[in-house]
Target: TonB-dependent receptor-like beta-barrel domain-containing protein
Amino acid sequence: MACRTGYIENVGSPAQGTAGDIYEAGRTGLDARLGYQLLEGVEVFGSVSNIADAPLAYYQTTRRQKYSRETYGINADFGVSARF
Model:
């Protein structure tokens, strides 16, 4: 599990048309991976990313002023890994 605190993404400038600073809101990410070694150097695995389905959100100056919000959903994959 990874917790990321909010931080400033862009400093506002009236010349650029943005009156306030843009911040990325903090979020918590949860990923998992499970693997099983079949033979020496050969592994089957499965992984899931963004289990908490945490959105990526930005706000301007205060949290009440939403700037954008992106959602990506949960991603899962599986496969075979081999080392030669």
Remarks:
- The mean pLDDT is 87.
- The chain has no helices and nine strands.
